[in-house]
Design brief:
2,3-Dihydroxybiphenyl 1,2-Dioxygenase, domain 1; 2 domains; nine-stranded mixed β-sheet; globular; MMCE/EMCE_epimerase; Glyas_Fos-R_dOase_dom; VOC domain-containing protein; metal-binding
Length: 308
Amino acid sequence: MAVSVERIARIGLNAADPDRLAAFYEAAFGFLREGDVEWAAEPASRLFGMAVARARVVSLRLDEQRVDLVGLIPQGAPYPGDVPGWSSLFQHFAMIVPDMEAAYARLSRVPGWQPISQGGPQRLPEASGGVTAFKFRDPEGHPLELLAFPPGGAPEIWRPTSERTCLGIDHSAISVADTARSIAFYESLGFRVSSRSHNLGPEQARLDGIERPDVAVTGLSLPGGAPPHLELLCYRTEMDRAQTGMRAVDDVATRLVLAVTDAGTLSEAWESLAAHRVSAEPVIWPDGRTEALLRDPDGHHLLLTAPA
């Protein structure tokens, strides 16, 4: 059955130190702290499919997009070193900046991050959108991207109306082994193909920090069209992309939080996606919302959420 996901409501990052990481996002990009809550151990354990003694969530907002920094006890494995873009572990989110030079300068004044891109921000050829981009890792290893559209090329939603350094989160990109398989899976959740490009060449190599990249990029959007959207990155590589035991509590297990209309819709999705379950069962939280954790065909985590 097809599930009608309404939007990508937020992005969840596991964090060893949510306060320290929140301070980085505030200083480097202008995120605002919106909330700080604890999840009870029993429902958190059922959600993650393993024992969790404590879960604390620091919520951040950039424009209308949200990021949750989730601190877990016991803590999962730290982010595993330099995960390349072709790895099925790779997932990042991209923030739109109106002025790359100013955004890069602001980031450079904040300590703790590590570059992925070589030689600073890279302007890609027109065939790859003509954007200027820079990839890097936050202090705990999560990959991020700054993205600037060429002059006159920004969609209306990303045309600046203020002096903010970062305007918002445009998309989250995940590395996949088989584009057709991933499209079929995400179409079952209500996503539709909205763009395609083929990125390669020296500029892409410097951006990704990978020799001779050859990547098919497929944009997937939901009917409402509000950002962020999803991008599939399918690199042509002979490297082994098999995952090595990523758990939902590990720092590498970034989650897209997908909002559905109600608990009934969530339950129907849960029944139809039995092969992709992580949670033992859907969890009803004290505030009445229902949530369940899934994996896509490449192992990327998806949290379905329905309001009370």
